[in-house]
Design goal:
Structural class: mainly beta
CATH superfamily of the largest domain: Immunoglobulins
CATH topology of the largest domain: Immunoglobulin-like
Mean pLDDT: 83
Low-confidence stretches: 369-375, 492-496
CATH class of the largest domain: Mainly Beta
Distance between the termini: 57 Å
Number of domains: 4
Radius of gyration: 33 Å
Largest sheet: 7 strands, mixed
Number of strands: 39
């Protein structure tokens, strides 16, 4: 139906002798439909009620499972049987599949006229001769788009969180998220979301924010910095910065980008870019929760009634791999914008869970009789090693001077360990040992007052102890005691549960073409990796997984090896072609 507004409501009034026309029956249907859809939209919201998961069937096929959704006008969308489609069979694929590297799969309400019948009145209302259609069949339309929703906050989070895009270009997008309502004097968090939208080269940027009625570490400026090389390669990155709302009364605040402050590096080279905009918030003495409720009751009616433009439900974000003229599915992310309807059944289940958790906490606080807990498997015990060491200072040292020990093997193997250090007052075995700050013990004598630190090399299983003098000393040596602890929670996972594989697993390149490869770990905390190409003349790959094909055609093997767990290795093959040779 083309009418997307609920009002005004009017229903037919019947009386004896009334002549009923098509308009009367259509008015009757519209009244009933609009009342139901009004309740759907205002009480339940819009989005997926249940089901409608998008599943990858093969490299070029997806399936939309059965489900129910309510659209922006309160109309029901029912998928009563799984829908399996090839990518190129879905509307919008040819127009949307481009260089972005992903597509959005959307669904919207649709209806069509069905059941053609003979019209005794002659020509149909649409000039179709004597044929009219007896029914409307309600259904849906599934299609692809490369565009995101026009409005930043069209989900329920929009009521309490302000989300703005401050930069979009060069294959990345930078978003900022801030709570709309803050309590004066309370802390909050500014979240910066960085999305890699097809950029193959590492990205780094920094810019400044001007804070109003907010402070970061006592200042009204916040410096945002990001370097993709410092994070495991991913499609999204999340940065959080603590802020404090100033002690003001009912004032407008925010975090706005300082004009001209953005510096963007792509592949180590600076590119021209401008960031603008920011977030707004209101700071008051009352609770933020109460402010959200007041705002909703004041504005929800106007927002829902005003937004009658076509709004789709985004079911999935599908990442694509380009292989020649075709695309293959790399991954499927369901409900990227969290368009869900929180129904009564789910609300009741969540309420039961919260009540049971509350009862458990109350029982624990009161110390009442409780049934004995089921026996739990013993947690893996940490490994501990300790030993002595000596830092040689030569003829002594002055305040602030630094000294380092030789490399010490802790004996706990490769990977992260925690090292605690303590220092002796002097080189004698019967001298006191100090753990922590030596300034607390203000004793006189030949002791050494120094700060200690350890730097662990996780690739060798060793560490170096460092010492910085707090006060001058003539002592030539400092006796240290070290204790190394390794957390065995990760090592308790069976080796066969750890996995490493490479994305993409299918790749064809032209000579000297570049491609980014991603090492994907499962059940491994330390995700550092070493890349290599097996063939001596098989091209080059850097530490970030950026591969450059050689000048020679052929099939080459790329290998990824875990730094922390050398037994974890994965390989993929690249087919390098030369279009000029093939044309010849």
């Amino acid at each position: 139906m083309k009418n997307l507004k609920y009002f005004p409501f009017a229903r037919s009034r019947y009386f004896y002798g009334k002549l009923l026309t098509v308009d009367d029956f259509e008015t009757e249907q519209k009244y009933m439909n609009d009342k139901r859809r009004l309740v759907n939209r205002f009480l339940h919201g819009s989005g997926v009620v249940c089901g409608m998961n998008v599943v990858r069937v093969d490299d070029r096929t997806i399936s939309v499972e059965m489900g129910l959704a309510l659209d922006f006008a309160g109309r029901e969308i029912v998928v009563d049987a799984p829908v399996i489609r090839k990518l190129d069979m879905i509307d919008g694929y040819d127009e949307s599949a481009g260089e972005e590297g992903y597509l959005y799969l959307c669904i919207e309400y649709a209806e069509q006229e069905t059941e053609p019948v003979h019209s005794i009145a002659g020509a149909g209302a649409r000039g179709t001769g004597d044929v009219e259609y007896n029914k409307y069949a309600e259904g849906y339309r599934i299609f692809f788009t490369g565009q995101e929703p026009e409005h930043e906050g069209f989900t329920n989070a929009n009521y309490y969180q302000d989300t703005k895009t401050v930069y979009w270009g060069n294959g990345i997008r930078i978003k900022q998220c801030l709570r709309r309502f803050l309590t004066a004097g309370r802390e909050t968090t500014l979240t910066v979301l960085v999305e890699n939208m097809g950029q193959q080269q590492p990205v780094a940027f920094d810019y400044d924010l001007a804070l109003t009625c907010l402070q970061h570490q006592g200042k009204d400026r916040l410096h945002i910095r990001f370097d993709e090389k410092e994070h495991p390669k991913a499609g999204r990155y999340r940065l959080e910065f603590p802020l404090t709302a100033m002690d003001v009364q009912d004032a407008e605040g925010g975090a706005q980008v300082v004009s001209g402050s953005l510096k963007l590096l792509v592949g180590g080279k600076e590119v021209t870019a401008q960031a603008a905009g920011g977030n707004l918030c209101r700071v008051s003495a009352g609770s933020a929760e109460g402010a959200v409720m007041d705002q909703y009751y004041r504005t929800a009616m106007e927002e829902i009634v005003r937004n009658t433009y076509q709004q789709s439900i985004y079911l999935a974000k599908i990442a694509l791999i380009k292989a020649g003229p075709s695309y293959y599915i790399e991954s499927v992310e369901n409900m990227p914008f969290r368009q869900y309807v929180f129904n009564g059944s789910l609300s009741a289940a969540m309420n039961d869970l919260l009540l049971s958790e509350l009862e458990r906490l109350r029982a624990g606080q009161s110390g009442g009789d409780r049934a004995p807990a089921a026996p739990q498997a013993a947690a893996p015990m940490p490994e501990v090693a300790s030993g002595p060491g000596v830092v040689n200072k030569g003829i002594g040292g002055t305040e602030g001077q630094r000294f380092f020990s030789p490399e010490i093997s802790h004996g706990l193997g490769l990977g992260p360990v925690h090292v605690c250090l303590a220092a002796g007052w002097n080189i004698n075995d019967d001298a006191p040992i100090v753990c922590g700050s030596p300034e607390i013990f203000n004793e006189q004598g030949g002791e050494v007052h120094a700060e200690l630190a350890a730097r662990v090399d996780v690739t060798k299983g060793t560490f170096v102890a460092g010492l910085r003098l707090i006060a001058p000393t003539s002592a030539r040596h400092v006796r240290i005691h070290w204790t190394a602890v390794r957390d065995n929670r990760e090592s308790a996972l069976a080796r066969e549960q750890r996995r490493l594989f490479i994305r993409p697993d299918v790749c064809e390149l032209e000579v000297r073409e570049t491609r980014y490869f991603q090492a994907v770990f499962e059940n491994v905390d330390d995700q550092r990796v070493r890349w290599s190409v097996k063939e001596p003349q098989g091209g080059e790959i850097d530490e970030n997984g950026m591969y450059t094909a050689p000048n020679t055609v052929g099939v080459y093997e790329i290998t990824a090896e875990s730094t922390a767990h050398p037994e974890l290795r994965a390989s993929t093959y690249v087919v390098v072609r030369d279009p000029l040779q093939e044309e010849g």
